[in-house]
Amino acid sequence: MRWLWAAFLLLLALPALAQERSALARLDLAHSAIIAEGKDRGKPRPLDLQLAISHPVPYRVYFLDGPPRLIVDFREIDFSGTDPDAVPGRDAVRALRWGRFRTGWSRMVVELAGPYALRTAIQKPAQGGASGALVSLRIEPVPQKDFVTRGNALSALRDLPQPSNVAKLEARRTGDRPLRIAIDPGHGGHDPGAEVGAIREAAVMLGFARELSDVLTRAGFEVYPTRTDDSFIPLEQRMTIARGASADLLISLHADALPAGEAAGMSIYYWNQDADGRAARELALRHDRADLVSGLDLSGTDDEVAVVLMDLARLETQPRSETFAKFLVAALNQAGVALHRRPMQGAAFSVLKSPDIPSVLIELGFLTDPNDRANLFDPEWRRHTSQSIARAISDWAQDDVIRAGLSRQ
């Protein structure tokens, strides 16, 4: 793979090709294709992926497993307005997704029928009457033992606070600085979340997060959003953003979808790897699925040492998460906000995995429930709910300081 990275670095050094372009490259679907050799559908067979783009861009290629995926990162193609299912030959692969990955980068994910290896990766002038460039990738099936992947992308212990940062957290708990809240609007970018008609969970949560952030700021808290636009932010990076801000609390916002009649009302989740509720398991799979197909594997592959260290860190953090969830349920009940029949639950949502920051995930409602949908688009309900969340944070923070003082005695 060294030659591939060398080619990538070479492209970075050619401003005439990409760096000095003022416009993003656009995808030409009419001259793009996925071409499979042979007729044995459903089984791994040689594939040629051809993407026609308006001008050359730097890119990098690698594989991930569980399920097998080809990942291609571009700097930068604007995929907006293009449907991956419209690519000629799309049915030759199990799934195809693309979209903005992070600032300056877009990502294409190809879910494969088995292990593959990259044989050629070429970017050349477009052919057949098309303008711009053609990215041509040749991949071929290989035995599992020859399947070279980038490995597990989750590093849950990355960026854990050093002693100086722990001291900063203690300074907050003694009142020497404002409470810092990381607000995480779920989904974004090529991951729209739940969809009901034209309603996209990612957009609704971004709007609510902005209103909640305004309420919290006016209440004297410092707010650090994990995203401020329609961008895809991997779950691991959301936790890292919270750590980078020395956040005292992480609140992830969602409004998912379950079969009609199965769920309605707000619910609050805290980390519980052993949660066995069917709805919680289904929601966890939905929340984490976007990262799986976007090149991140959060499927429980942490090594045993990391698990032990995280469990030790959670001895203090986990009770604080659960205590905040209780304060939140109490504040919402007092305000008359309709709650789920089980308003407080444990679940294995990966965004709650942070061992060092109390974290909760709020399902503000379910887009599949008409009353919940109406609430989410009611400005008065959003304001009332945001104020209740702010009140719960304030009450929890005071209790947290008292508990911290008692633990030191």
Automatic annotation (TrEMBL):
<protein>
    <recommendedName>
        <fullName>N-acetylmuramoyl-L-alanine amidase</fullName>
        <ecNumber>3.5.1.28</ecNumber>
    </recommendedName>
</protein>
<dbReference type="InterPro" id="IPR021731">
    <property type="entry name" value="AMIN_dom"/>
</dbReference>
<dbReference type="Pfam" id="PF01520">
    <property type="entry name" value="Amidase_3"/>
</dbReference>
<dbReference type="InterPro" id="IPR050695">
    <property type="entry name" value="N-acetylmuramoyl_amidase_3"/>
</dbReference>
<dbReference type="GO" id="GO:0008745">
    <property type="term" value="F:N-acetylmuramoyl-L-alanine amidase activity"/>
</dbReference>
<dbReference type="InterPro" id="IPR002508">
    <property type="entry name" value="MurNAc-LAA_cat"/>
</dbReference>
<dbReference type="Pfam" id="PF11741">
    <property type="entry name" value="AMIN"/>
</dbReference>
<feature type="domain" description="MurNAc-LAA">
    <location>
        <begin position="239"/>
        <end position="394"/>
    </location>
</feature>
<feature type="signal peptide">
    <location>
        <begin position="1"/>
        <end position="18"/>
    </location>
</feature>
<keyword id="KW-0378">Hydrolase</keyword>
<keyword id="KW-0732">Signal</keyword>
<dbReference type="GO" id="GO:0009253">
    <property type="term" value="P:peptidoglycan catabolic process"/>
</dbReference>
<dbReference type="GO" id="GO:0030288">
    <property type="term" value="C:outer membrane-bounded periplasmic space"/>
</dbReference>
